[in-house]
Write a structure and sequence with these properties.
The chain has helices at residues 19-24, 29-41, 45-67, 71-82. By secondary structure, it is mainly α. Helix 2 (29-41) runs antiparallel to helix 3 (45-67) and helix 3 (45-67) packs antiparallel against helix 4. The longest helix has 23 residues, at 45-67. The protein starts with 18 loop residues before the first helix and ends with a helix. 13% of the residues are buried.
């Protein structure tokens, strides 16, 4: 997997890591959070990095929406992500 650098260069995961990895974490939010938890529990650093990247991209997209004055949609998104 390509090394993940910060700050994130893009708000599209496909532009940060290879296609296979981007498709692997292109799952519904509940499953993604389960993958984060499992990777952390099993101490699989590369999987934890990838899944946390996917969550970070989701948050970054929400922040961009706030910047573009889509307040209500983004606040709902952030509350749902943090839930």
């Amino acid at each position: 997997m390509t090394a993940i650098t910060t700050p994130l260069k893009s708000n599209k995961i496909e532009e940060i890591v290879q296609k296979w990895y981007a498709e692997f974490v292109d799952v519904d939010q509940a499953l993604l959070f389960e993958l984060v938890t499992a990777a952390n529990f099993m101490d699989i650093k590369s999987l934890l990095d990838l899944t946390c990247l996917a969550v970070s991209v989701m948050i970054k997209v929400c922040i961009i929406r706030v910047h573009n004055f889509e307040h209500i949609i983004c606040l709902i998104c952030l509350i749902y992500v943090c839930y």
